[in-house]
Structures are given as structure tokens and as C-alpha cells.
Amino acid sequence: MSTRHSAVVFLVMLAILAGLASSATPADPIKVAYIDPLSGPFAATGENGLNQFKYAADAINKSGGVLGRQLELVPLDNKVSPQESLIQLKKVIGDGIPFVFQGNSSGVAHAISDAVQKHNERDAGNRVLYLNYSAVDPALTNEKCHFWHFRFDAHADMKMAALTDVIATNKSIKKMYIIGQDYSFGKAVADAAVSMLGKKRPDIQIVGNELHPIGKVKDFSPYVQKIVASGADAVITGNWGADMIALAKAANDGGLKVPFYTYYAASDGVTAAIGAAGIDRIRLVHESHPGNPNAPKALGDYITGYRKLHPQNDINQPRIHTALNMLAQAIKRAGTTDVDKVAAALEGAEFTNLSGDQLVMRRDDHQLQMPIYISVHTNKNIKYDLDASGFGLSLENKIERDKATQPTTCKMQRPT
Amino acid sequence: MFQLILFSILNGLVYGMLLFMLSSGLTLIFGMMGVLNFAHASFYMLGAYIAFTLGLRLGFWPALVIAPIVVGLLGAVIERQGLRRVHRFGHIAELIFTFGVAIVIEEIVQLVWGRPAKSYQVPAALDFPLFRAFGSSFPAYKAFMLVISIAIFAFIFVILTRTRAGLIIQASLTHPQMVAMLGHNVPRVFMVVFGIGSALAGVAGVIAGPVLGTFPGMAQVLGSIVFVVVVIGGLGSLTGAFVASLLIGIVQTFAVAMDVSVGGMLTAVGVPASAGGALHDLWKVTIAQVAPILPYVLLVLTLILRPTGLFGTRET
Amino acid sequence: MSAPAATRSLALPGVARAVLARRVGLGLAAAVLLLILPQLVPTGTALAIMNQMGIAVIFALSFNMLLGQGGMLSFGHAVYFGIGGFIAAHVLNMAGRGTLWLPVPLLPLVGGLGGLAFAVLFGSFSTRRAGTVFSMISLGVAELMAASSLIFDRFFGGEEGITTNRSKAPLLLGLEFTRDRQVYYLIAFWLFVAALAMYAFSRTPVGRMANAVRDNPERAEFVGYSQHRVRFVSFCAAGFFAGIAGGLFAINYEILTAENMGLNASGGVLLMAYIGGIGYFVGPIIGAVIFTFLQSMLSDYTGMWLLYLGILFLITVLFVPMGLAGILMLHAPAWRSRRIGRLVVPYLITGALGLVAVIGAIGLLELLHFVAVSEGAGATKRLFWTTIAPRTLMPWLGFAALAVLGALGVRWTAPRAAAAFAEVTK
User: What percent of chain C has pLDDT over 70?
Assistant: First the structure.
């Protein structure tokens, strides 16, 4: 053969090999978008959340994936800005990603839920499913509910009902101060606190109902001084992220020693900031077992495994494991990633979470029904601590699922 | 009540003196060069970040001394290489240049230190309550902040009025050409002033970082308030900056403490407050919620009614 | 009194008609380009970016009415953009509820009128002085509006902002706007109309006087115009067109938040206009296109896109104050004398070497960012389509070499390019 011929043969063989190599790629992954804050005052929350999602996805992928395909997380930064989130959502839709997880904040959740509904109504061939794992403004499963939104955390009213039950039993509280972030969630917490306390303990006087700009106040000393001046016996707050850390610091500095009833005063830096000053004083209402005392085995193993990868972070949102696994389960049940079919499979689905609780996704409003836990910040008998600080949460009360359920005003429209 | 007043005054003083540390540099630079330095608050941010990093290795106290020097040198370099070049294109070009510098510094901070806030802690030596009164306590660190701010103010005052260098600086403020003809290197004086002003902002960053937070947005947050202070006090006037800083600091702190609504206040003064209509939102809002907006209202009013500010002598 | 320059030139038939023909031709070419653009790049992402670009171009052009033409540096121009958008969103909601009849295509006008109203309000005192005082007032107004957004909950929607729905409004001539592509044509239409209007404004007596007031306010007064009034008219016109851009924003994104009025938005438009070149009408167009492109495309690959833009901005301010449009215009004589071909080779060489240097610099910055910020040793990073291990020495050396060699190469070949330019521009 002449050199020219051999060259041609060589090139043809190369081409065939290249073709074979590319066709041997694995089945393409199921992409799942994660639109949460990866910068700004709430970056720590978003980044730890992302790590927990990755951890849960890795576990699913190791045991074979979903329908033979691997789950692939696509993280996007929402900067806690509704607008920025919509820009990311446009990217998600443009890239053909069918599933979106988001949780921080409720303000962003409203924008995404609204945009998802509009898009799905206009473009039936390219629908997106919105899986809300942490935005707990009740409106999202009440007046703003729609078929393509599912919520995996107990909403603010469910949590406040549990919290006020516990507060009601504490007879030493006569004056209550409410402080929160000035947006949908903060307002929802304040409204629920006022109305539920009014029903269960009408003798408690609300001596303060304060809303501050979210993510902007760095020095809470003036607010702490107000709380002291009001003579409050206890404080209710829904603050989270940097706002909770700053509030805790200012409360410690200002010598404020009253009990705090909170939604998010643990982990992501808050437990370390509270430290010894908050022992037996700071309480948290949340959706799964705190790990102490006597963690259920599945939860304990999960936490231990995560700690090996991220020694400085905690499994502070076991609902992430729940949400991702319920999605995987629904895709398997539907046999497809078609959004409408997956959503239909997710409605009414049941799941046993890491704490051993039986959860069910209510059809009427797509709100996951679950028991509610109330724990206290302490350093006694803490096997699983938070922020690697030696302090952690210890279980005080558990309200069972049927007691924790709340009615809904949702009038769900289902696609035909 | 006393507790609230006492602590509000104290917190207001601390915040006000911090603002003064920042605004003194800015107003000096403006008075001297006619440049409103957008990047001034960026030096504040750099001071905090550099002190945080140095503090991890060397401790808080060495960082307190070294970080402002680094920031001051950086300021001098920026003046020499950048600002001087743009000077001949006019004030607008200088403004645009410092604006660009502010953006680049903020991005470089995110490049080197990342986006999440840094856990810049109060040094252990100062992390205790100084005194308790009326059921609340005042942290020693805040007292430290106050002491440092006052010390720096005194230091600047003495340097400017009692030393030869200070006299030259003061003269360059009003008669740069004459001073140049007398044989002084006026451009070098400008560079030194810019550097010192930046170093002052850096000191403010070092001590405020633990209290007000160390995060990439810190320059924007404080930058606007400092700008307000400088304008209200009067461009170029140190006394004005001092008075305006304390005024804004105390007003903002007290405003948070007041739960009276605007409508309620107006009714108390005799103005009938209607509950409906487009202004309903304005009526039911409390002074506490309005607190962040008060400085800007004062700013716009000052610029309309008295653009030279309280103590200033020039507008541009 | 002799006739002003504009009418005098029309008295000369040949030259004036040629200029007019050229301008009309450019306008038609632009219109055709706008029409066929979606066909050229039909992907969803490209369409979304083009929509964003269109809005940014109108906004940047309106900003340049203040800065480039009027000499007024405003740090709060986004206020009028945002207010226009909010008003448009509220009106669109009212149209959706049936309270009033307003189809989507007319909505940008509503935004424009909203921007105009507030420009009249704030411009009355802002424009009394020019220079630094004007800039300071604009900054103060911007801060004020941003802060008031927290108070006027019902108008600004608080943290959540105001959402709206363009599918619920009544239809005009049966035109629907459910798809991005339909919105694109609406934006393109308004872009053409607004740009034409702004260009025409710059040729009117008030537009010309704005130039005069920019250059020498005192002398302009001697011609008989009040500088305050001229600035005020420019300011209001700029606010009107910014409001149009805001209205289009409301239609495109269906959400407005306080951020849209904020300092970041105002800063962004300043960057766009300045990089593009404030001395030329097309400057802001170029700047807006580049800014939007970098923002959308780069932000996927690197979080540092704003740094690169900021550095570009600083370079423009320090070394190339005429902006990109200015650089292009410098080559106009060469283009007209058809000798531009001689520049191709020297420019390509210097340009390629410059690109090498830039790649090296970007690589170094990205490596620095990765090492400074990420946790866990041995992690890898994808950079320029290759996977790199930033904790080893090789990538650092490689990028440093690229940067240094590229810079040296530029230094070597730049004189030749400059000489070619000088020769061609003679």
C-alpha cells in the first residue's frame, strides 16, 4: 500500500474508534437544579444545603440511580433575590432541566412558584416541577398553591401551632416579644404567633411585634435594648441565616437572658454563636429528630457519614434526604421523567424518613404531612453536636403527624 | 426607659464615632482635591479583611497596626498611578474612576476571600461585658471602639493644627498654587493625604469588622451612610463631619427604639391622619421601620436647601 | 442672524443628501438586522439574552442623553427605569383584572410616562446645578427611593416585589405574547422607535443646546437658553426613555423588585455607556450589548465576570476614555479611504498576542480564586475547556508564561500596528 492509502486507512480507523468511544457514554443523567443562595448573607445556608443534596444524591446514585440513570445536581446562585432566581430559572428551562429544588427564601419561592406556573401553562411541552424543601410561608400551599409545587417542610403555621402549644404550658411567660425579618415568611410567623397565642393563652401580652429589613441589620443591639426595655419574658423569632447569628450575638452581648422560641436558631454558625449563654434557653421547632438523645439508627448513620465528608457542617435539614428520595421514588413509580406524570405519582405518596416517621404528601395542597419536633439548645448528653461546637439540640416535645396537620384553603387545579 | 435611653445613647455614640472615622478621611480628601472618593468605603472593607487574615496569624493587636498601614499604602498608590492620571480629564472623570476602583476592589475581595461572610471575632481580651445597668449590659469591645475613635480624632486634630506638616496640608486645602510656589511638593501632599484618609478608613474597618460584619457588601452598606454624613456636615469640613456623624449615629439608633407610627406622631402634633388612600402605607409605618431611610431624607433636603452642608464652605 | 448649521447644510444638496442617505441606510440595515436576528440564533437561551440586550440598549441610550450629551453624571438613573417598570406592572395587573383596557404593546408607553412623571418631580431640583452636586443629588435620590421601597409595601411589593402576567392582558390585533420570541419582536420594535426618537432628540435645538450646556454652561446662557431648563428637559426625556425600558422589563420578566431601582442597576448602566463610548450615539449600544453578553455568558463559567468588566472599565477610564465606539470611529477615515485592509494583518498579530496575554491573566486570576476560596486539597477545576489541578505548579507556570509572553509580544508588535494605523489615517 502506498503511504497515502495507509494514511487514509489509519484515519478511517481512528474515526471509527472515536465513534465507538463516544457511543459508549453512559445513559444521560437526570438533571436536578438547585436554586439557592450561594453568595451574600445567606450563603452558608445555601452551601450547606447544597452539600446535603449532593450527599443524598450520591447515596441514591450508588444504589443504582433512578430508572438506570444517575442524578446530577446543577447548583445555581439565587442571591436571595427574586429577580436573580428568575434569571436562573430561565436558564434551567432553557437547558431542559425538569426538576427544581429551592428553599431559601420564601420571597424567592413565591417568585419561582409563580413563574413555574405561568411557564407550565404557556409551554406544555417543556414543563418544570418545583420542589420546595424549605420555604415555609403558608400561602404557598394555600392561596398560591398549584399542581406543580410540592412542599417538603412543615409550613410556618404548622410549626407555630406546635410552638404555641409548648409556650401555653409555660405559665411563667406573661409578656411576649415577636421579632422577625420583613418579608412574607417573617410576617406569616408574626401573624400566626399573635392569633394562636391569642387563642391558647389570651393572658399573654404581646409587648413587641418588630419587623426588620432582611439581611441588612448587622448590629442588633438597638433591637435587643428594645426587647429588654419592654420587659418581655420570652421572644419568638423566625430569623434565619446571618440575621439569626447577629441577633444571637447581640442578645448575648446585651445580657438578654429570656427564653427564645425560634424556627432556625441552630447550625450554620448559629449554635456556635449562641454557645453557653443559650443553654436550656433557646428552643427550636423543626421537622425531624434532633439526634439527641437516642437518635434513630438511620439518622445517626446518615449524620456520621456526612460528618466524615464535611467535619464543619451538620445534617441540619434531613428533609433534603426526604425530598430527593421522594422525587426519586415518584420518578420510578411514574416510569418517566415527564413532569405531569411524576407530579401525579408524587401526590399522595408515602415515605418513611430517617427519623422513622411515616410521612404522606397530601393531595389537596401538596403539603407534606409530618410530625413536629421541639428541641432545646444544650450541651448535656449531646452525641451529635452542631457547628462542631460541643453544643447541640436535645428533644423536648414531639407532636404526632395527625395532631400537627393544619387545614388548607387550596383549590388545586389539575391539568387535564 | 432609662435603660433604653442610656444604651441608645451609648450605641449611637459608638456608631457615630465610627462614621466619623470613615467620613473624616473622605471629607479631607474632598476638601483637598475636589474628588468625592467612591472607593473610600472600599478601603474600609479592605481594612477589615486584611485585619481578619493578619489576625488569624498574628493576633488582633498587630493586625490593628499593620492593616491600616497596608491600606494607606494602597490608597497612596491608587492616587499616584490612577487618580493623578485622570485628574486632567475633569471632576466627572475622577468620579467615574473612583467608582470603577470601588467595583474592582469589591470584586477582588470576593476573588481572594470568597463570598460568604468572614467570622471575624472580637479579640478574647475584650470579649466581656463592661458594665451592667438596668438589666442590660454594654460590651467592653464597644467601649474600646469609642476610645480608639476619640483617640484618632484627637490625633488628627493635633497633627493638623500643631505640626508643620499639618499647616502645609491645611494651606494646600485652600491655596494649592501658593503652597507650590513656596517650594512644597503639593502633589506629594495630596498623595499623603489620600493615603492617610484611606488608612483612617482602614482603621475603621479593623475595629468595626467584628461588630458590623465582614462581608463583600460591607462597603456598599456603609458607603452610602458615610456619603450622607459628609454632605450634611459640609464637604471639606472636619467639624461638620464630626457633628453630622454623631447626629446620624444617634438619630438612627434612637429611631429603631421608637415604635410610634408616623400617623400617630402626626396626630399627636395635630395633623389629621387618614387611614386610607395611597399614603396609607406611609401612615401606618413606624419610626423604627423608617429608621434606615431617615439619613437619605436628610441628605436630599440638605442638597436642596443648603448644598454646602452645615459647616461647609464649598459645593464642589 | 445667519441660519443655524443644521438648516444651512441642507441648503447644500449633494453632501447633505449623501449624509442623510447614509443615515437612513444605517437605520434600515439596523431594522433588518433586528428582524432576522432570531432566525440566525434560534435557541431559547440566545433569545432570552437578546431580549435582555434590547432592554439594556434602550436604558443605556437614555442614560447617555444625560452623560454623553448633557454632561450630567447620574448615579440614580435606574430609579426612573424601576419606577417605569413598577407602574407598568401595576397597570398590566389592572388590565389583566379588566379594570382598564391596555394591551401589552402599549405598555412601555405607560412605563415611559411613569418615568417621565418622576423625572419631572426629581429633576426640578436635581438639575439646578451640574457637576458633582448633580451627581450627589442623584445618588441621594437613588438611596431614598431604595429605602422607601421598604415602606411603600403595596406599591413595591416588599421583598417579594410585584409580579404580573402578560398573558392576561387584552389583545391588540390578536397579538399574543406568551412566547419569548413574540416578546423579542415587541422589544425590537420599541428599541427601533426609542433609538430613533432619542437620535432625533439629539438633533433638535434643545438636544444641541444640551451639548453646549455640557461644554460651557455660562456661554450657553449667553445664547439665550437657561442652563437649568435645558438640563431639565434632557433629564425628563432621559427619564421617559428609561421608563420605556422599564416597561419592557416588566413585560419580559413579569417581576419587578426594589433592586431594579437600586445602585447596582445604576452602576451597571454607567459601565455600559462608558465602555461603549459616551461621545457617540452608538457607544451605549455597543456597551450594552457587550455588558449583557458578558454578564449572561460569563456568569455561567466564572463568578468573576464583574471583575473582568470592572477592569475593562478602569482601562477605559484611564487609557481609552473615548470608549469602544471611539476606537471604531478613529478608523472611520481609513474605512472611507478604503485603506483599512492594510490594518488587518498588524492588528491580527497584535490582537492575537493580546488575547494570549488576556487568557494568561484570566487563568491566573481564576487559579488564585480557586485556591483562595475552595476547601479540600486536590480538587480540580475546569478552565478554558480543560481540567486543571490548581494546587500543582504547572497551571500557574503555564498561565504566567502565557501572560508574560503575550504582554511582551504586544509590546513588540504594537509599534508596527500603530505605524500602520498612522499611515492609513493620513
Answer: 95
